Structures are given as structure tokens and as C-alpha cells.
């Protein structure tokens, strides 16, 4: 980017944008390291997120939109089940609870950082029962994008306990020493 105007003056606005970008990159590297910066650049490029927008506000927006979509689907499914299929209060409440549990199972991660269940697996089961009405490839693409956007973390204490229970005491001690050394 050429920051000089045709009259030879430095474009103050372009300079400020560059300096703001450098300051943000420095902050990210200090907080999350170079790998964190790579992840941030990848996310911002993929989603066209300007520098002025914080990661927290993007996460808040994602939560807001996710809740809005979930509430819309819950409402319309419950309404349809009641109006078109005669579900009464007991069955509606049971469906509401089970639907919430199913959604939790695909959103929550196990101690190894993997989802308990996958929506693509649910879609394949539905397609087997009633025909290929769900686009499993698209659902898998979405799962892949979502997984790339999340850092898969494992619960440290659970992993140590798991290694000990499976007879890998040396590996558990090595991991514990490495974790203490890194801080």
C-alpha cells in the first residue's frame, strides 16, 4: 500500500491503520503467541472481520445469533408439533428437554476436546430413516469450519488421571513435568 498522496504527503489515515494493526498483532502475540496470531489472521480473513472488532464481540455476536436461531427453531418446532400433530403440554415439554439435550451433546466437548456427538451422524441416521432430505456434506463442512475456529483443549487433570488409570504413569509424569516447566 502506497501511503504517499500524489502531492508527496504521507496519508495519515493509512499510517494510523497500519500502526493500529501492528499494535493489535503485538498484543495477540504477547497474549497467545505466534500461533494465536496465525489463528486470528485466518479467522479475520475468512469472516472479513475488521481490526476494530474485538474477538470477544465476535464471540458475543456468534452466541447471540446462535441463541436466536435456536430459539426460532424451538418455537416453530413446538408450535408445529402442537398445531399439526396434536402434541399436548407433556409431550411438548418432553420434546423441548430432549431437543435441548441433543443440542448440548453436539456443542459440548468431552475431556479430550471432541464433541460427544456429531450433527453429521445425526443427519445420517435421519436420512437412513426417511430418505436423503438432509445435506450431510454441507453439515460436515460446517462441522469442519466450526472445529477449525475452536482450539481443542483437553482437561489437564482428567488427562493425568486417565494416563495413570491406563498404566501410563511415566507419560503422566512427563506431561506433569512439562506443564510445570511451561508455567
Descriptive keywords:
183 residues, 4 domains, 7 helices
How would you characterize this protein structure?
- There is one protein chain.
- 1% of the residues are buried.
- The chain starts with 11 loop residues before the first helix and ends with a helix.
- The protein is flat and about 60 Å long.
- The chain has 183 residues and is mostly helical.
- The chain is built from seven helices and no strands.
Layout of helices and strands:
Layout: H1 12-47, H2 55-85, H3 89-107, H4 119-130, H5 136-149, H6 156-165, H7 169-182
Summarize the model shown.
By secondary structure, this protein is mainly alpha-helical. The protein is 74% helix and 0% strand.
Indicate the proportion of strand residues: under 5%
> How many structural domains are formed by the residues?
4
Instruction: Determine the oligomeric state from the structure.
Output: single chain
Order of helices and strands: HHHHHHH
Radius of gyration: 24 Å
Low-confidence parts, pLDDT < 50 over ≥5 residues? none
- Biggest β-sheet description: none
Helical/strand content category:
mainly alpha
How many angstroms separate the termini? 41 Å
> What is the mean pLDDT?
80
Count of discrete alpha- or pi-helical segments spanning 4 or more residues: 7
How helix-rich are the residues, as a percent range? Answer: over 70%
Strands, total number: 0
Shape: flat
Amino acid at each position: 500500500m502506497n501511503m504517499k498522496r500524489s502531492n508527496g504527503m504521507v496519508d495519515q489515515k493509512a499510517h494510523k491503520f497500519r500502526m493500529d494493526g501492528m499494535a493489535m498483532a503485538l498484543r495477540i502475540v504477547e497474549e497467545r503467541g505466534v500461533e494465536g496470531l496465525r489463528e486470528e489472521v485466518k479467522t479475520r480473513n475468512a469472516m472479513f472481520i475488521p481490526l476494530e472488532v474485538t474477538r470477544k464481540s465476535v464471540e458475543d455476536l456468534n452466541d447471540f445469533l446462535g441463541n436466536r436461531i435456536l430459539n426460532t427453531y424451538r418455537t416453530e418446532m413446538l408450535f408445529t408439533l402442537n398445531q399439526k400433530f396434536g402434541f399436548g403440554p407433556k409431550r411438548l415439554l418432553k420434546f423441548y428437554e430432549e431437543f435441548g439435550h441433543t443440542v448440548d451433546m453436539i456443542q459440548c466437548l468431552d475431556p479430550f476436546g471432541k464433541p460427544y456427538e456429531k450433527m453429521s451422524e445425526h443427519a445420517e441416521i435421519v436420512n437412513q430413516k426417511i430418505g436423503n432430505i438432509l445435506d450431510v456434506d454441507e453439515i460436515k463442512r460446517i462441522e469442519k469450519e466450526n472445529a477449525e475456529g475452536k482450539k481443542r483443549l483437553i482437561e489437564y487433570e482428567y488427562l493425568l488421571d486417565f494416563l495413570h488409570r491406563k498404566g501410563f504413569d511415566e507419560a503422566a509424569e512427563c506431561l506433569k513435568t512439562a506443564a510445570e516447566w511451561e508455567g
